[in-house]
Write the structure tokens for this entry.
Amino acid sequence: MSGPASRLWGGRFEGTSAEAFDALNASLPVDQRLWREDIRGSRAHARMLGAQGIIGADDAAAIDAGLLAIEAEMAAGVFVFLPGDEDIHTAVERRLTEIAGDAGRRLHTGRSRNDQVITDTLLWIREHGRAQGSALKALAEALLARAAEHLDTLVPGYTHLQRAQPVRLAHHLLAYVWMLCRDHRRLLFAIESAGESPLGSGALAGSGFAIDRDMTAAELGFDRLSPNSMDAVGSRDALVDYLAFAAQLGVHLSRLGAEFVWWSSEEVGFVVLDDAFASGSSMLPQKKNPDAAELARGKSARLSANLQGLLGAAAGLPLAYNKDLQDDKHYVFDAADTIDLLLPAMSGMVATAGFRVDSMSAAAGEGFLAATDLADHLVREGWPFRSAHEAVGALVRACSDRGVGLTEASPEDLRAAGLSGVVLPLLTAEASVEAKDVPGGTARARVVTQLADATARVSAW
Ligand code: ARG
């Protein structure tokens, strides 16, 4: 139980609060990691209060010194949280008052925890988002490096998990780089979204003091001011933008993970994962499990759940701040932590993966992957595409009944397909990828251009 005096809002209360309520109400376990942002925001606010003559210069100086001392305690890990510290804002102000006395009690002039908490959270997203941009870049660079190595490695491309047409391994890997390029744009958008300073919005209606919002916004590195105090304290759009980035990135990493799980299976055998990114089985000595890839595949659920969670918490809330919103940070931190774990592991897994060029090439040249190329050949000979498609389909059936590939089609197979007398063109995987000489296609020159474009894009991040 905490008594009225130890609480920021104690004045109106006579009774103590129930332990069960305190436990539910406290957000400190989640928001204490905002201590840097909280101190930064408070220093900017106090300096502004001093500059505007709202508090005395001596009080402003005492607050600043006190906040610096608290920052040092936090950084050294010696700050002592007390049971009454409901959240990080309460803890910092309580300690400041212990250090600076009445000056500390002036810090909250013209401010509410409602504008304070969203200010802190936006600062955190901007800071952390920028760091994640670098981790995203490292993964894109790992993929680019592997793509550059494997311009001439051919691998089956799939649809419905059925071998469809051969592609260059570089082309396949670059597909993920383009996904990450879009993720990076979404990340920048979230950082930009978080660029509006809510400080000065008070509890919901702004401030009755002559505060200088531009001054605090500039000092904290915000790009502009929030234009409406109720919107500023009651909305969480920038957090949603961040979580939407995280959720979509999660989907992309999940697909990359799934690809590596499958490629590393004995059945496929296209990749051998490095020991550093695999684990063994406690019971089955022969096992080498693609854990990193599987975790990437699975954690997408968590990232999309975080987006869904915040959307759910914010929906239906009347303006402005409601305590439901206290949970917002849980979703953001969980998403950020998950991405912080995933990106370096995926970069390492990609960088160290052993691609089995022989198995890939053999699979790319096998079976019926050139069926479309044969149909295209017939079209060039004057056949309508639909008729060519039908005839090649029949040839595939005839060959597959005999357990042979297209290149081994006998005169009898050709006759059965209505293709008697047709001279089969060169049906190699190499000829097939080279034939796709369109922008975004698999011809070597096109993939070389694509690789250069993607490299330029990523190096600009
Ligand atoms: N711990 C709160 C949160 O995270 C801070 C804002 C509290 N505001 C209030 N009016 N009780 O949202």
Q: What stands out?
A: The first strand starts at residue 154 and ends at 159. The pocket of arginine is lined by residues 27, 31, 87, 113-114, 117, 321, 325-326 (CB under 6 Å).
